[in-house]
Specification:
- By secondary structure, the chain is mainly alpha-helical.
- The chain has one domain: Growth Hormone, Chain: A, CATH 1.20.1250.
- Helix content is 86%, strand content 0%.
- The chain contains seven helices and no strands.
- Helix 1 runs antiparallel to helix 5 and helix 4 packs antiparallel against helix 7.
- The radius of gyration is 18 Å and the shape is elongated.
- The termini are far apart.
- 28% of the residues are buried.
């Protein structure tokens, strides 16, 4: 998320010569899209479960890539950034909800520390690399560069769902 969010205003204003007003509006829409869904995200997680919301977040993230690749107009950037914000919200809140399920109580501080280090370390690298990637290659290459994370997260979610299904199946077989 940070990679695209950091590069978008540079691409919009410096490369595609859109006005600062249009660039500001796109970023403001993105910020709203990041946090406004939080008013309903916990309800959505309770209703559908964090795994389904993660799948929806990944789908929205894929739509963000498609919207960003569709063109260089203000509407393309704005749509892409809105989808990025909503997708990030669903992914971040759902992932944060699942994290405590992945460890035992005595491990919680270490796991939380590792998680924070990885999240903020990745954000720092993305922030530092966004301009380089954008100006060295292009907006399209930057968007394509986010696809491997989408694939890894999708594979991880699939593995998680399959392991839950296997655990549930083994539990039912053991109680029969």
């Amino acid at each position: 998320m940070t990679l695209v969010m950091t590069a978008a205003p540079l691409s919009m204003h410096d490369m595609d010569q859109h006005s600062l007003q249009a660039t500001n509006t796109a970023i403001q829409a993105h910020i709203l899209a990041m946090f406004l869904p939080s008013l309903a995200t916990s309800w959505l997680i309770q209703r559908f479960g964090p795994e389904r919301l993660l799948m929806l977040g990944l789908f929205i993230y894929a739509l963000m890539i498609i919207a960003g690749l569709s063109g260089h107009g203000v509407s393309h950037y704005t749509t892409s950034l809105i989808l990025l914000g909503v997708g990030w919200n669903f992914l971040f809140v759902s992932g944060t909800t699942l994290l405590p399920r992945a460890y035992e109580d005595p491990e919680r501080f270490r796991v939380q520390a590792v998680n924070e280090f990885l999240v903020f370390g990745a954000q720092a690298l993305a922030t530092l690399g966004a301009a380089w990637l954008l100006f060295r290659f292009s907006w399209e290459i930057l968007l394509y560069a986010t696809a491997p994370a989408l694939v890894v997260l999708s594979a991880t979610l699939l593995w998680h769902k399959l392991s839950l299904k296997a655990t549930h199946h083994n539990t039912q077989a053991g109680s029969a």
